[in-house]
Design goal:
Elements lengths: L1 H12 L5 H26 L6 H46 L1 H14 L4 H23 L11 H25 L5 H24 L3 H26 L4
Helix pairs in contact: 2-3, 2-6, 2-7, 2-8, 3-4, 3-5, 3-6, 4-5, 6-7, 7-8
Length: 236
């Protein structure tokens, strides 16, 4: 119980345990804002009425959310399958050649800076405690913090895409057609900046760096899409 409390205290002061769901959520919200806003700007640049813009933006929002959730689930499930296969392979190796695996584990600790004798002692003690867990963690690099969760990642990605994509769609509804492109761009940059700041704060990284990166690439994406709309638009 004391060890679990120590781990909980550690996680409260570090952010790596948030990396899986935070990555999926930030990616989903960022993609939701950016792809939906870019689509709206591109169509707005070629349209004389609001209806095609609303329809295209809404369709992009729905399709994007489903695509993000499905893609994230498949991607993370593939990672999970690889992890399970590696763990099963490691289990078989431990049964077939335990001594070689013990020496391999000791070598890992020695490479990390322990003396040879100390490394062997540590390897033996961890082997006695939970041999498979020791090898999975230190040889394969898989632990509870970094372990993939397909359902969690898919939900975080899809839901955050809907949230992010709903913001440009709301702008399309609220602002007049004459200033729609500028309104979508300005509001989306603001949304992206807020997202960058929140994700940086949640992840414990530098806020300015995150905001600058996300707004810079957002500007490029929306600018290119608007240019394409102007070049190939035919007054929808």
């Amino acid at each position: 119980m004391e060890d679990k409390n120590n781990l909980d205290d550690y996680l409260k002061t570090h952010y790596i345990h948030r990396s899986n769901w935070l990555r999926a959520a930030v990616l989903g919200a960022n993609d939701g804002i950016l792809s939906t806003a870019s689509l709206a700007i591109g169509v707005a640049a070629a349209s004389a009425t609001k209806e095609p813009i609303i329809l295209a933006t809404l369709a992009g929002l729905v399709a994007g959310a489903l695509s993000m959730a499905a893609g994230e689930y498949v991607s993370v499930s593939s990672q999970t399958d690889i992890e399970k296969a590696d763990i099963e392979r490691e289990r078989q190796e431990l049964e077939e050649m335990p001594e070689e695996e013990l020496q391999s584990l000791a070598q890992i600790y020695e490479n990390r800076g322990l003396k040879k004798e100390t490394a062997l002692i540590v390897a033996k003690e961890l082997t006695e405690h939970d041999v498979l867990a020791a090898h999975v963690r230190d040889e394969l690099g898989i632990n509870e913090i970094s372990k993939a969760n397909p359902a969690q990642a898919a939900f975080a990605s899809g839901a955050s895409f809907v949230f992010g994509g709903a913001l440009p769609l709301l702008v399309v509804f609220l602002f007049p057609l004459e200033s729609l492109e500028l309104s979508i761009y300005a509001s989306s940059i603001l949304f992206l900046a807020i997202l960058g700041g929140v994700s940086a704060k949640t992840g414990g990284s530098k806020i300015l760096k995150s905001v600058t990166r996300i707004t810079f690439w957002g500007t490029i994406a929306m600018g290119i899409t608007a240019l394409i709309g102007y070049l190939f638009g035919v007054n929808l």
